[in-house]
Amino acid sequence: MRVLIQLRPTPDVVAAVAAPDLVATTADVTDELPGVALDHSFTPVALPRAQPASPGGDPLSLNQPLVFSMAAEQASVLVRGEISDDEGSARVALLPGRHRDVVGVYADPVIETSLTCGGSPPVGTWRDVERMLSVPELRAEGYDGAGVALAVCDTGVNAAHVAEGLGLEVAVDRERSWNPGGVSGDAGEFDVDHGTMCAFDALICAPRASVIDIPVLLSRRRGGTAMDGLLSDAVAAFAHLRTVLEAQPPESRALVVSNSWGCFSPLWDLAPGQPGNYSDNAAHPFNIIVGSLEQAGADILFAAGNCGTECRDRRCAYPDRPIGGANSHPQVLSVGGVDTDGRRVGYSSKGPGRLSDRKPDICSYTHFSGSKAFGEDKPDSGTSAACPVAAGLVAAVRTRWPASLISPAQLRTLLHRTADDRSDVGFDYEYGYGVTDTAALLSALKRRASRLPL
Amino acid sequence: MVLITVRLPVEATMQDALRTLGLHEDDVDTAYGLVPLDPGQGLYALRVTETAAGRLPPEADGPFSDPPIEPYGPPH
Q1: Are the Cβ atoms of A382 and B76 closer than 8 angstroms?
Q2: So where are chain A's domains?
Q3: ipTM, 2 dp
Q4: CB B61 within 8 A of CB B70
Q5: Strands, E, within A327-367: which ranges?
Q6: What is the topology classification, in CATH, of domain A112-450?
Q7: In this complex, do B75 and A381 lie within 8 Å of one another by their Cβ atoms?
């Protein structure tokens, strides 16, 4: 987390910072502060002391007439730095007591003029996403998704709509697609909806992947809205995907599973701590089968969710830690969203996760004009879009690197290490390890290839 | 119907599950079937009536929550 640190150094240093004709640096003000990465590009700022205007006024009240003193003995100095998210609150609390000059430590939130939110118009197009993901460079090196199975677990795919939008043939693997009980319809021929958006977004990076259509969100077994599914159907879907994976030759296994869904409310779940709970319970059947499928060689991606504090989806009902259940599973890649300007969208859920602390893992692109599944002027939005965009990148990698050469865990680590870090100190709860960086990923894969025996 | 798990030998069938759990076909969601969660560990999921879930043997766990799931987009 970024912080502002209020210091009270010696009066001569305060005077130097306050002097308009001098430029003091952070190094002039302080040496090291334990656990703080000082931002030496930030010019220290002198801060006046507020005092009661009337003699006898309450020295701790700001709710009265005040005067402000820039006298060197009374003013203080602000510097900027960063504290690791892992222990941010502890350091903020302890720092003033451990360093004689520190008066206070305050959050330094990013201020934005217009954060992208749910109702915002599209920011860029899928062609921008294609460029930012370096798709031409990927294709030039043979990373196009050929031979890779890409499961889209969603509301079903309309392949004709995707093909028309992307201007390419879409391969739907009808034999390996699967419907939950009670759901009719043929793979690749469902109504244009959320699943079609997901397939479109995944194929930006992996146009030759074979789409396995899993319309798990169309389940209506227990009523509810038409979009409600049941988690037990997802359990069955993942069991089916395991048979798909195990039917692939062990030396060339490549199955990427994209999941842009989750649970919005703890009211739909047993309370954390109860044995049957889902959100916080690694022993829930769905969380077990997720781990089992990943262990067998599948890359599993989940959207982080749309419960970011700046403009959360109104369905979000978790009071905190909205990334729960499989969306926070340690063996999946949990994907947050950035717009094509590279800024986190305000609805992208922040960590920590419930099953695994370090969530989201990474961010990918969302809120762009793409599939037009929801209308001509409507963006592909939500972390729902960011997840398949990242899944497409993973599928592209799998074209040449099956799970026998890079395990799903190794590929997640590679994506973490090559991500474009947005916090300067590694992982943070807003961007995870950063935004996927295709160029850095390709470089890392080349280095890895050079180490393989001929 | 509620979601439970049961430990059974590898490649077990629904009949094996019914025998181990002491249940009849009417007690389970046969359309859902016996779903292998972790075949190597012999762990399976199935859906049973709430009444049946109340008299499960030690080989079984549950019931587990089976919440509705929703797409994460577009944001409302």
Answers
A1: no
A2: 2-107, 112-450
A3: 0.93
A4: no
A5: 333-338, 362-365
A6: Rossmann fold (3.40.50)
A7: yes
